[in-house]
């Protein structure tokens, strides 16, 4: 009997997979129609402020593989440059990009306010992690990447027991000359982090940090370089970059702060007047799909869905406490913080 | 009347009056007009757009001076401008101190190992300032810098002796990657000075060093000044090094301030307003240059031939070689040794172990098709831009130098302006002017080539102008007297006489073009990616190992190109071999 069971379980499971597979493979009706329409357009242009060019190309190729006949021209720059190019395109009356992805939600909020976006709610958006759903209640833009800020440290210089566990631990005297971080004046993600820290601990938090003679760079990833070189040993940093570097063998480790990991969602939107509106919609489906999140995880980035396991060492979004200030708060607080930052840190 | 008929006939007496002037009209004049038109199109269009946008409100586009008030109404911004000017001045002085002695050593003396020094200096030139700055953080970081750790080990001291995060070291590190401008300008000029006057001074009893300071160096003042101006303007507009060093050092620098206008809410108009006074600084620099050069003559090349003998230095040649090696060690050997740790490691945070050594980083660069294409793009676009810029600059400099058209000074201004406008601001102007219809160059290689040509036109122009100053017009006049046209004079006399200098000029455009980021980032399309944009990507991605490998690859490739270039162009025609 046991033997039969032992045999039956995998068999039944396999049968189940076979039975389920066609439904998983089949495209929904809406998707099929979209694909047919997109095929006629043949291509789309994606202005991306997220990931890097190589991963953007990988995303484009995976998309074309899933939907043969529709190619993706991905242009990765910084979000500021992508937005600036977009504004110039709009000024010239020619929308050269179909889909725009930015690390700064205010970019798309601005475009939405000016009535320059096309509303589209991808069917796949329902499968995204709960904290990422409905970033825009009106459905004009959807999360395509999350910037996280955690605590990153150099394992060779700091033991696991000694490593800071939560944000206030970073202000400890023992990190004098040993801590580094980016600046809200140059990095949107760091900007959101400062908003969250000020909400939680007040500006005194940064005055304490300043006494430790921190090494201030621009981007959230600048600390990765100085942590690896041994110039500094702890930093608030982006776990994806740390995992990527650790995957190569570098001595970096990540702690998800107990009171909350900072999360800043990067949205994508379709532009009004896009030359390839159907291909753009199909691409929005792809950016919310399981395939896309798998590409993210493969590249040490945080997947956007719970049905895709996070990269080694990382935690799933539903397993960590998340701090995610609202756009309204960011837009209200950040300008003042930038001024205070210049007063405290000089630049 | 067709153009053919107005060409002057050999031996025909000159006609006076209007008819005479018409008769002297030659088809070459059309070339000047075309060259000036091309300049107006390339440079003036984005610049005019920039000036206009600095006077407009962001949303409605109505006329306003608010942008200037928000740009300069704050003490902090004025302080940043002051710091930037001081920084550029320091860098210029340091660069001259590095470049001029080495240029003299390489061009005029019997110093050994010249090719090595020349190649390494161009290696410093190809190094993106961004990468050099990181190399220096690895060397002179207060906690973990190699130099400081060595110092602490040797002296037993608890702190290092050099802090990369300081104003002086910021200037030093910038100068190490800027001095090649002055070096190339000066050594080109020194190659053209014949030894007659030096010999005369020697015969009259002047010693070697007296001769150098009273005869040789004064003769190449236009070149030194030209190089210094380029370094100054380039530094004022530099972003990479300040971003990496000045920011942590808490030094306010103008370009860093400028960058912040591109954070949301974007205020590109304020950025334009903040950048425009830099044009006034450019003007002032040229006024200073003219005042220094005065009415003296710097003609070094005449029709009478001439030759150059190398000054024998005796044991002093080792001193000048030592100095040259010291400078190139600081610029190339030490930082690349530090970067090498990353380029040849699997994980550079692990330190030196045999197990950690790898060539994978290089392999992954060359194996991936996208990366390979990107490298080829960078080199071909930059080479094309070098040719366009040299051709335009030579024509423009010729028009100005031989006073062929009214408004020559205006032309100089036009040729010099693009360098001082920070790249990001120029990039926006360029994108706005040329990406969309009617020009519609979006996503093409042409927009990048034109962008590079425009951005580095000033360098080409300054070098061409300095070269032409050293050329006695009598040789062209000889061509003209014998019935040749001006074009023939340029093609058969000027280009051959200045060929080495023109190659130098081409390199001066080619090399910075391969490392140019701020304009490129606005102009690249999906099929036209270039190395600098890829580097930014790698750095943002934390892939420092591959980034360092790319730096090494660039260094090697450029040195090869340069050596090949000098081989093709042949040996210095004035050098007397004994």
CA gyration radius of chain B, whole angstroms: 25 Å
Radius of gyration of CA atoms of chain A, rounded to a whole number = 22 Å
Largest interface: A-B, 67 and 61 residues
Task: Give the DSSP E fraction of chain A (strand runs of 2 or more residues).
Answer: 15-25%
Alpha plus pi helix count of chain A: 12
| Text of the CATH class of chain B | Mainly Alpha
Helix content of chain B: over 70%
Number of strands of chain B: 0
Structure description:
- The complex is a heterodimer of chains A (about 350) and B (about 575).
- In chain A, strands 1, 2, 3, 4, 5, 8, 9, 10 and 11 form a nine-stranded mixed β-sheet that branches. Chain A has a two-stranded parallel ribbon with strand order 6-7.
- In chain A, strand 1 (about 45-50), helix 3 and strand 2 (about 70-75) form a beta-alpha-beta unit.
- Helices cover about 45% and strands about 15% of the residues of chain A.
- With about 350 residues, chain A is α/β, with parallel strands linked by helices.
- In chain A, helix 2 packs across helix 10 (about 275-285), helix 3 runs antiparallel to helix 11 (about 290-300) and helix 6 packs across helix 12 (about 325-345).
- Chain A contains twelve helices and eleven strands.
- Chain A starts with a helix and ends with a helix.
- By secondary structure, chain B is mainly alpha-helical.
- Chain B has one domain: MetI-like fold (Orthogonal Bundle), CATH 1.10.3720.
- Chain B has helices at about 5, 15-25, 30-55, 65-70, 75-110, 115-125, 130-140, 145-155, 165-190, 195-205, 210-220, 220-235, 240-245, 255-260, 270-275, 275-295, 315-345, 360-365, 370-400, 410-420, 425-435, 445-470, 475-480, 485-495, 500-515, 520-525, 530-540, 545-570.
- The longest helix of chain B has about 35 residues, at about 75-110.
- Chain B starts with a helix and ends in a 9-residue tail after the last helix.
- Classes of the chains: A alpha/beta (about 350), B mainly alpha (about 575).
